[in-house]
Write a structure and sequence with these properties.
Oligomer: heterodimer
Strand content of chain A: 25-35%
Largest interface: A-B, 24 and 40 residues
CATH topology of the largest domain in chain B: Dna Ligase, domain 1
Radius of gyration of chain A: 20 Å
CATH architecture of the largest domain in chain B: 2-Layer Sandwich
Distance between the termini of chain A: 35 Å
Order of helices and strands of chain A: HHHHEEEEE
Largest sheet of chain B: 5 strands, mixed
Strand order of the largest sheet of chain A: 4-3-2-1-5
Number of domains of chain B: 3
Radius of gyration of chain B: 24 Å
Structural class of chain A: alpha+beta
CATH superfamily of the largest domain in chain B: DNA polymerase, Y-family, little finger domain
Strand content of chain B: 15-25%
Number of helices of chain B: 16
Largest sheet of chain A: 5 strands, antiparallel
Low-confidence stretches of chain A: none
Structural class of chain B: alpha+beta
Number of strands of chain B: 15
Distance between the termini of chain B: 46 Å
CATH topology of one domain in chain A: SH3 type barrels
């Protein structure tokens, strides 16, 4: 379908370039702030992470782990070696010599490294 | 059950309201925001509610407004302040929904589908939005509601702006009942030219248009005809997507000249300066354009002259050296040698620079390097830090235009 039919308001939008620039700057700032602030997740999200972690731990599968750090979000690929619920930490082997220990509260997202 | 809850919030007399918010001494007075008549910008850009009571309207010349209300207070526009207020209002709306789409400086769409359970009925949400905007900015808004963006826009323009409640709902069930009796000019997307076309075939109301076959409108006016048919039926497939802000079709500038320009050299100089501005903004977005559009408006109001023509470039570009020859070609071909009052240049068909430009060394490599350096200097030290020597010649507009937003003081 033509863009005019699909998005007629996008085609007729009247915006000053300075306004458009201001909005882009605001959106970028908002995105940056979101990246730099600790997100709040609902229970469903935590359940999904729990399930992915357990599957990866039992099947020795790698995960793409996104963690929240002081300098924003960082991502690495690692295989979970063990979880310590009492200390609230997970140990990953991530290819480097020593295993990587991550606090559970810092985990923002988990994705299977090799989706089936 | 509504399929979607879309609001269009329109700020009442936006520029005038911002001026009153900034200077409370203006409250209750007939206020009109207008440019400098000495520079031929003496057109009313916005009028306060009190000024409108005297019959003052947007688009009217300042002298006519003065005749209608001798004690009207004229205020010069402050475009950057209006942009700042618009962004503040966007932030307020984002406290209600994350799906907000600014459509113009004083109109924003909000998708509130699914918010009723948390925020209450649409009427309640509209009242809350209105009072929050009023408390934080001193500006009132009128809200049109619909099941799509078109219905919300029509509800706002045709009903909410005219009602005491400043709120009106159109939906798929009542759309025909409320709108089909309205004149065809009230339909979103119908301008003066299209209105005349419709009058010629006997279409005077929105209902008349809705009664015509869709295929016939498509045959006669292409996609545009089909979209208007859909609008007449209240059908719209648009969505509130934040990405629409970044989805720019073209970059352009228009300017009303401070006096009528008669000499070819003077007009060409302004065209050169404006080409440079357009190219600078296009490059800043990391894009190149493929079609140049030139618009010239004649000076005589009684015998309107001028032209609006476009030409495709041999290859997409964004440097003055590549674009200006095409601008000149269009100008020489279509100018009737009559005095010119306003000019406009735009570059459309934008594409990402790296997507198309092949890295072969060619004729324009040095020009691109030069343009890149000029851009860097201007970004760091300001727009007027580096300029063409002929911008000091009589008739040049470079210094007058720099620091302005939309042709008005920032």
């Amino acid at each position: 379908m033509s863009k005019k039919i699909n998005q007629q308001f996008a085609c007729s939008k009247m915006m000053l370039p300075e306004h458009r620039g201001g909005l882009q700057q605001y959106n970028n700032q908002k995105h940056q702030d979101e990246e730099n602030s600790r997100p709040h997740f609902d229970e469903q999200h935590w359940e999904r992470l729990q399930q992915l972690f357990e599957e990866a731990l039992s099947g020795h599968r790698s995960l793409i782990v996104t963690v929240f750090t002081k300098s924003g979000r960082k991502t690495f690929t690692g295989t979970p070696l063990r979880g310590d619920p009492a200390a609230g930490k997970i140990t990953f082997s991530s290819g480097s010599a020593s295993p990587r220990v991550v606090r559970i509260v810092d985990i923002v997202d988990l994705e299977p490294a090799n989706p089936r | 059950m509504r399929s979607k809850v879309i609001f269009l919030a329109d700020m009442e007399s936006f520029y005038a309201s911002v001026e009153m918010s900034q200077n409370p001494a203006l409250r209750g007075k007939p206020v009109a925001v207008c440019g400098d008549p000495a520079l031929r910008h003496g057109i009313i850009l916005a009028a306060s509610r009190e000024a409108k009571d005297f019959g003052i309207k947007t688009g009217q010349p300042a002298w006519e407004a003065r005749r209608m209300c001798p004690w009207v207070v004229f205020v010069h526009p402050h475009m950057q302040t209006y942009i700042d207020y618009s962004l503040r209002i966007t932030r307020i709306f984002e406290q209600f929904t994350d799906r907000v789409l600014p459509y113009s400086i004083d109109e924003q769409f909000l998708d509130l589908t699914g918010s009723e359970k948390i925020l209450g009925s649409p009427e309640k949400i509209a009242a809350a939005l209105n009072s929050r905007v009023w408390e934080e900015t001193g500006i009132r808004c009128r809200i049109g509601m619909g099941e799509n963006l078109l219905q919300a826009k029509m509800a706002c323009d045709c009903f909410a702006k005219k009602s005491r409640e400043a709120f009106f709902e159109l939906n798929s069930a009542n759309y025909a009942c409320y709108t089909w009796n309205l004149p065809i000019s009230a339909l979103f997307g119908v301008g003066h030219r299209m209105e005349k076309n419709f009058q010629r075939i006997g279409v005077r109301t929105i209902g008349h248009l809705a009664g015509l076959p869709r295929a016939m409108l498509r045959r006669r006016w292409g996609i545009n005809g089909e979209v208007l048919w859909l609008n007449a039926h209240g059908i719209d497939y648009s969505t509130v997507e934040a990405d629409m802000v970044n989805d720019q079709k073209g970059v352009g500038h228009t300017a009303t000249l401070p006096r009528d320009y008669r000499k070819q050299a003077e007009i060409e100089l302004v065209l050169l300066e404006m080409t440079e501005e357009v190219c600078f903004r296009t490059r800043r977005q990391g894009k190149i354009g493929s079609t140049v559009h030139l618009y010239c408006k004649g000076a005589d109001f009684d015998y309107p002259t001028g032209f609006s023509r476009q030409k495709k470039l041999p290859e997409p570009a964004a440097t003055t050296a590549e674009i200006y020859p095409t601008v000149l070609h269009l100008f020489h071909k279509h100018w009737d040698r009559k005095p010119v009052r306003a000019v406009g240049i735009s570059l459309s068909g934008l594409t990402a620079y790296r997507q198309l430009r092949l890295p072969f060394s060619g004729l324009y490599d040095r020009q691109e390097t030069l343009a890149g350096v000029v851009d860097l200097v201007r970004e760091r030290f300001g727009k007027t830090s580096i300029f063409r020597a002929n911008s000091l010649s009589p008739g040049a507009q470079f210094f007058q235009r720099s620091g302005k937003i939309g042709g008005h003081d920032s």
